[in-house]
Please model this.
Amino acid sequence: MNSKEEKLLKIGELAKLSGVSVKALHVYEKKDIIKPVKIDENTGYRYYSPDQFRLVEALIELQDMGFTLDEISRILSGKCSKDEVSSMFDEKKTLLQERIWKLEAKIKELSIIKDRMNEGKESDRIKEMTDEERAAFLAKLVVINEEGVRQFLSEILWL
Model:
């Protein structure tokens, strides 16, 4: 092997280094996202350059942001214009903001449920309740307040 080949990483090494499975790297190859720089004709081993580690890191980060592999392939291939990439990022930003609003609404609702539970005397005897009584009690606590629903719908309509 020459010095250039010695620096190449086997697929398992790249997988371990980047924290993804070998199977995932095969999927990325099929999607034309990450191609091995060399495939040994005799063994079929795939080899990657150390620089491709950064590409895998970028891919993982984009997946964490909600991008699909097809979207990532388009972004990394250079087939998208700057405006198209910018638009894709704006879409993901909007989706993440929607998730934040939904989670904040759930957190608020949990606080309301907890407060309702702490206010009622029934909660002191929750262990002694029958399954039916407990289900009715929890259903009563979990009822979403009308104002919260109105606010949530209003936020969605203005997106």
In short: The longest strand covers residues 46-48.
